[in-house]
């Protein structure tokens, strides 16, 4: 096997910590879905993971379903090695429903402030954290890098592990990520040990001038709090739906996932030195096992 082939294979026992599934025929979208993605079935996800040598998945609530987690519960019942993060309405969900989700493999809730540009509702974030606190779940947030400035002071009050999607989602139109508002706050949060981030979605900002340095800083700061993710099936999101036509089915972006794995392995080598295998094993295997509370006996 050539070296390039080795570079495109994650370590044994690898996790993909951010994937979505959607099947509008079986699970209708929320009436206010911000865009209409084409089908992304569990069987397609499993085939994708087999092709890359990935053993475990964490399913993430798709914004088109809002707080309806029916599709994720269905998928978890058919997924041998997985976890999930859902969206909930903390004012209506019951303790029994939360226990059902926990037993099924849910280990977190997602708060999405970026897809629709929602403002930070501090009271709502704390209320959501309070509902899942007995279960020790994570609070996963999808926010723009600049939004972290306002979000950072709230983190100590949350009192649970916090996961920031897509390494903070810097805006490539604003120049180097390390010079953007929110970057210093992101690094400071990672230093606390309470906050994690996902090495994912870099295809959303491929022209960020300092992407290599930006990622290296994060890996050096928090090697034990970064998890790798493909962000499959690579939705265009609201950015790819500028006219607001929610009836038109949106195609997914074409992403070279094997090349992304290779680039992540190079980042690991650059930061750790040598083969970078210890850091690679952390972001693909050890860190997600800890974050998603996975035990080999399951």
TrEMBL record:
This is Amidohydrolase-related domain-containing protein. It comes from Aspergillus nomiae NRRL (strain ATCC 15546 / NRRL 13137 / CBS 260.88 / M93). The lineage of its organism: Eukaryota, Fungi, Dikarya, Ascomycota, Pezizomycotina. Pfam families: Amidohydro_2. Residues 16-293 form the Amidohydrolase-related domain. One of its GO terms (molecular function) is hydrolase activity. PANTHER family: BARREL METAL-DEPENDENT HYDROLASE, PUTATIVE (AFU_ORTHOLOGUE AFUA_1G16240)-RELATED.
